[in-house]
Design a protein that fits this description.
This protein has about 300 residues and is mostly helical. The chain is built from 12 helices and 2 strands. β1 and β2 form a beta hairpin.
Length: about 300
C-alpha cells in the first residue's frame, strides 16, 4: 500500500510540473512568434511600398540614387519626376560620420579614465550621469542646438548657421553617452590577468592601456561606434531643427542641407497614400531600413570575430 501511494504521489506531483512547463513554453513561444511576425511585417511593408517607386511608378534606379534634384511634383526634361535622393543620402552619411569623429575621442578618453584610472568615480558618479544623458529626449538636444550651436556657427563662419556641421555637433552630444557606455563596458571586460602580465613585463600603465587593453577591447569599441552611427543615421527631429532642411547637394559643412530622416518627417504627412510623392518617401524609408540592417549585421560580425579571437 505504501509503495502504491508513493508512486501515486509522484505522478500527481510530476503532472502539474509538466503542465506548468508546457504552458511556459507555449507562452514564451507565442511571444517570440509575435516579435518575429512584427519584424517581418515591418520589413515587408516598408520594402513593398518603397519598391513601388520603381515597379509601379517606373522611376529608374539611376535617377533615384544618382539624381541631385528633389522635387517629386515636377518632371525633368526627360519626363521623369525629379526624385533624386543623392543629396539626402550624402547628408545622412556626412552627419553620421562627422558626429562619430567628434564624439569618439571624448567617449574613448572618458571610458579609459573611468575604467583604468578612477573606477570609483566611474561607478558612483560617471555612469549615473551617462544614464541621465541617454534619457534626454532628442527634441531637447534640438532646442539646445537651435539656441546655442546655430547662433555660434552663424557668428563663427557667417551665413545662416544651419548646416551639416551644426547637425553633427548636436548628434555628437546625442551619441556620446551610447559610445561611452558601450566602450566602458568593453574596457571593463578585459581580464585583469592581461594587465597583470603587462605590468610583470615592466610596462607602465599607459603602455598597458595602449598596447594591451585597447587592442583587447577593440571589437567592443567598434561595436560601440557602429551603434552610435546607427542612432545618428536614424535621428530625425534634432537634425531637422539644425540642418536647414534644404534638399540640395551640400556645398560645404556650413550651408543648409537635408538628410533622409528630415525629408521623411517633413513630407510624409503632406502626401496622399499611393501617389508618386508618397511612394518616393517610402523609398527613402526603405534606404534607411536597409542601412539600419547593415549596421546591425556589422555589429554581429564584429561580435563573432571578437568572440573567436578571445577563444
Amino acid at each position: 500500500m505504501s509503495s502504491k501511494s508513493e508512486s501515486t504521489a509522484e505522478v500527481v506531483g510530476v503532472s502539474p510540473k509538466r503542465g506548468i512547463e508546457r504552458r511556459g513554453q507555449i507562452i514564451t513561444g507565442l511571444c517570440v512568434t509575435l516579435v518575429v511576425v512584427l519584424v517581418v511585417t515591418l520589413i515587408f511593408m516598408v520594402c513593398s511600398r518603397g519598391l513601388a517607386t520603381f515597379t509601379k511608378d517606373g522611376i529608374p534606379l539611376g535617377s533615384f540614387f544618382g539624381g541631385t534634384t528633389w522635387n517629386p511634383h515636377q518632371n525633368g526634361a526627360d519626363g521623369v519626376p525629379l526624385v533624386g535622393a543623392l543629396p539626402m543620402i550624402v547628408g545622412s552619411f556626412s552627419v553620421t560620420l562627422l558626429s562619430c569623429l567628434i564624439a569618439l575621442p571624448f567617449a574613448l578618453g572618458a571610458s579609459i579614465f573611468v575604467v583604468e584610472i578612477a573606477p570609483g568615480f566611474g561607478n558612483k558618479i560617471f555612469r549615473p550621469l551617462t544614464e541621465v544623458l541617454v534619457g534626454i529626449p532628442s527634441v531637447v538636444f534640438g532646442l539646445v542646438g537651435l539656441g546655442i550651436v546655430v547662433p555660434w556657427m552663424r557668428g563663427l563662419v557667417g551665413g545662416t548657421g544651419y548646416g551639416i556641421l551644426s547637425a553633427s555637433i548636436v548628434l555628437a552630444f546625442m551619441i556620446l553617452p551610447t559610445i561611452t557606455s558601450l566602450s566602458t563596458d568593453a574596457l571593463a571586460a578585459v581580464p585583469n590577468s592581461y594587465r597583470d602580465g603587462s605590468y610583470g613585463l615592466g610596462c607602465t600603465r599607459w603602455q598597458t592601456i595602449v598596447g594591451v587593453v585597447l587592442p583587447s577591447a577593440l571589437p567592443g569599441i567598434l561595436t560601440a561606434v557602429i551603434m552610435g552611427m546607427s542612432r545618428a543615421f536614424g535621428e530625425a527631429l534634432a537634425v531637422q531643427m539644425v540642418i536647414g532642411n534644404a534638399a540640395q547637394m551640400p556645398q560645404s559643412l556650413f550651408t543648409p542641407a537635408s538628410t533622409l530622416t528630415s525629408v521623411l518627417t517633413m513630407g510624409m504627412g503632406n502626401e496622399a497614400m499611393g501617389t508618386l510623392s508618397n511612394d518616393v518617401l517610402w523609398a527613402l524609408a526603405m534606404v534607411l531600413l536597409v542601412m539600419s540592417l547593415i549596421f546591425i549585421l556589422i555589429v554581429h560580425l564584429i561580435g563573432r570575430k571578437g568572440a573567436a579571437k578571445n577563444d
